[in-house]
Amino acid sequence: MDFCFFSANEMKEGDPVIRKLKFVAVFVAVSCIGADARAESIAVNFMAEAWGGGPFPIGAAEEAGYFPQINWNNTNPISNGTTADVAGPLPGKLVDNAGVDSGAGIAWFNANQPVGSDGGNTTPNERLYKGLIEGPAFGPTWPQLTFTVSDVPYETYDVYAYLVGFGFNAEASARIGGEEYFYTQSSNFTTDGFIRATSTVLEEYPPLATYALFEDVTGDSFSLEIIKRDGNRGGLGGLQIVKVPEPGSITLLVCGLAAGLIWWRRKR
User: Fold this and answer.
1) In 83-155, where do the E strands start and end?
2) Backbone angles phi, psi at 83, to 5 degrees
């Protein structure tokens, strides 16, 4: 950035310094606008057709999730499955937000069946929460609903678990490794919207939540457990893996630094 070292009397309209400042300003603006579109992420939508209708796919061009992205992987509506049971956009593969095979794999097991929630199915987020995989009828130490993702292509990433159940009141928890969040399960995203699970202690009446966020997960694989605590079975509508640091965050930092640099140079 050699334009930082010109003297003030060189700052005339049309001179190289002004042209460089304009170029940087345009570059920064374009980078800021496109930041989120370049975020690297993988997302899975668990579809259902029993006890609630369906299936409820998210279209490849539709954005869904608390961290919005396109190219959600829709699974076939089955109880237990693997990557081979991904219906699309690329059958039998987990694509990333760019629609390219990510190389990752998934398996889910200890499920009861795929069912539907009480929410609507009009918007992409409603369809994310409409179909779900339901866990077993018994709590610990009975094996719990588990989703294992392998060959994650990111060194560090966040995992979003989209929490929803079928009809009746339920208390559950979501766990990855030693990190666990306790919550009262929603059965209607349309009325409840996005509510983050924050309680890390088992209590009699945990707060309502519709998603859990596990930050800065490392390693090329992880297992997410949905654990029944009381009432109805725990369930999961979908999950999402977002690379860290998110490209949007990096670009915002660059935007701020560049804007400050331009302001400082103009003041001089």
Assistant:
1) 86-88, 105-109, 113-116, 131-134, 145-150
2) -55, -30
Cα–Cα dist 15/216, whole Å: 46
Give, in order, the Cα–Cα distances in Å from 54 to each of 35, 49, 88, 260: 34, 4, 16, 51
Residues 6+ apart with CB under 8 A from 2: none
CA 196 to each of CA 145, 149, 211, 228, 246: distance values in angstroms, whole numbers, following the listed order: 20, 22, 5, 18, 19
- pLDDT at residue 24 is higher than 50: no
Looking at residue 51, its pLDDT comes to 77
At 116, the amino acid letter reads: G
Q: Report the run of H or E that residue 225 belongs to, with start and end.
A: strand 222-231
- The CA-based diameter of the chain, rounded to the nearest angstrom, is 77
Whether the Cβ atoms of residue 246 and residue 39 lie closer than 8 Å to each other: yes
Q: Is the confidence at residue 10, as pLDDT, over 80? A: no
Closest Cα partner for 126 from 204, 53, 181?
53
Nearest CA-CA partner of 70 in 46, 110, 43, 107: 43
Spatial separation of the C-alpha atoms in residues 218 and 224, rounded to whole Å: 13
